[in-house]
Design a protein that fits this description.
13% strand; alpha/beta; globular; 4-stranded mixed beta sheet; 2 domains; 19 helices; D-Maltodextrin-Binding Protein, domain 2
């Protein structure tokens, strides 16, 4: 339903944008890895809006590897002196390319649009290099979500969504006793890491999360709090079914949809699966933050690479302005299942889960509990993230003790930083 709304709204948005601004002759080549389902439809909305301004959009999708294949292609293009105009990029990867002198800034567009006043400060900083915007965010995904089947919970005698990990464990025990898989999970490293970082937030809080998973503080990484986090991750391992290994995340979502499992812990892209199946939030499925106070941020953005030619530079400016327009932010995020990166976009047409996410985002900004996702490449370089994923998955699939996990993790992170 929401994707249909988005597609219908695209026409009016494109018309409003083209009527309110001078038509542009800009050209953009956009490299991305949104090649399936709602992702492809969402990026299609940006293409429509850009072309409605009179610009030429050259689409360069590269599927596979969660962006790994796209990054390989990007490196080759930059080395050859032929970078794309804009690239789907996120987190520290933006800063790494900026440090190499590979990016253009669109600060003039940001100043004109007052981006600083409408973006969460933590997200704005990720989009900047040396105080200037070099990327434009299209959305905010929340990582710390629980999805639940209300009928399964009722059958097991679980009356309320858990607000602490102890409450989650108690609910999971009831589901297990009722013959229902407590936690639908796919055994892939990024999914294991998603569980892990949500647990860290719930066990240690936002300040500890930042110290351990963003700042990589050795004391935090080797602390009793981190041991407790691994202890809870071990508990979660006991709540998944025997066939979890290698399962894609959307298949885990389907287990909750069918009532085979009670819970799934996954970012709000899982909501798209429920909505695509015609399920209604707070009726057919429940959305609830994972235990703890905070908000784990994941955000997609387009980074502007250093190109030459007036038409391409103009294209970058038009693209950046379109991405950050309230109209586009609404249309795109209705299609994607996320919420707008701008905090001032009305959410009248969004579902209950999105409205809750937005309210919690504003509260997290106010309380300084908004943290960038390590698992989803918002917090640390890819090499460091890889060490987290390797260790967490090794722990999840073995009888490694929490104490050993903490020691091995700290040593691996230290090696990654030294290399």
């Amino acid at each position: 339903m929401h994707i249909c709304k988005a597609m219908m709204a695209a026409v009016s948005v494109a018309g409003a944008l083209s009527a309110s601004a001078a038509r542009a002759d800009g050209t953009v080549e956009v490299l991305h890895w949104w090649t399936s389902g709602g992702e492809a439809k969402a990026v299609g909305e940006l293409k429509k809006a850009f072309e409605a301004e009179g610009g030429e959009w050259i689409d360069s999708p590269i599927a596979g590897g969660g962006g790994d294949a796209a990054m390989t292609a990007l490196r080759a293009r930059v080395v050859a002196g032929n970078p794309p105009t804009a690239v789907q990029l996120k987190g520290p990867g933006i800063q790494e390319w900026a440090e190499q002198g590979a990016l253009n800034d669109v600060q003039s567009v940001a100043d004109e649009g007052n981006w600083d006043s409408v973006l969460p400060p933590a997200l704005a900083e990720i989009m900047k290099y040396q105080g200037k915007y070099v990327a434009a965010p299209v959305n905010i995904h929340r990582v710390d979500w629980m999805w639940a089947n209300p009928e399964a919970l009722k059958k097991a005698g679980v009356e309320e969504m858990p607000t602490t990990w102890d409450e989650f464990n108690a609910a999971a025990d009831k589901l297990q006793a009722a013959g229902i898989v407590p936690l639908a999970h796919g055994g892939q490293p990024w999914q294991d890491a998603t569980l892990f970082e949500d647990v860290v937030l719930g066990i240690g809080g936002a300040d500890f999360f930042r110290k351990a998973l963003v700042e990589l503080d050795p004391e935090a990484l080797t602390s009793d709090m981190m041991v407790k986090s691994f202890d809870q991750l071990r508990k979660l391992r006991g709540y998944v079914d025997p066939n979890f290994s290698g399962r894609d995340w959307n298949l885990a979502t389907a287990m909750v949809m069918r009532g085979e499992a009670g819970f799934q812990i996954m970012g709000d892209w899982a909501k798209g699966e429920f909505l695509a199946a015609g399920k209604v939030p707070e009726q057919d499925f429940l959305c609830w933050p994972t235990p703890g106070k905070g908000f784990v941020l994941n955000s997609d953005s387009f980074t502007l690479f250093k190109v030459e030619g007036e038409d391409r530079i103009e294209g970058q400016k038009v693209l950046a302005r379109l991405i950050m327009s309230p109209e586009f932010q609404k249309v795109f995020n209705l299609a994607k299942g996320s919420i707008p990166a701008r905090t001032d976009v009305p959410l009248d047409d969004f579902d209950a889960c999105a409205k809750r996410s937005h309210a919690d985002l504003l509260a997290a900004i106010e309380n300084d509990t908004l943290v960038p996702s390590m698992a989803h490449e918002m917090a640390v370089p890819r090499s460091v993230r890889g060490e987290f994923l390797d260790l967490v998955t090794a722990f999840f699939n073995s009888d490694m003790s929490s104490e050993d996990a903490v020691k091995q993790l700290a040593a691996a992170i230290k090696r990654a930083q030294e290399n």
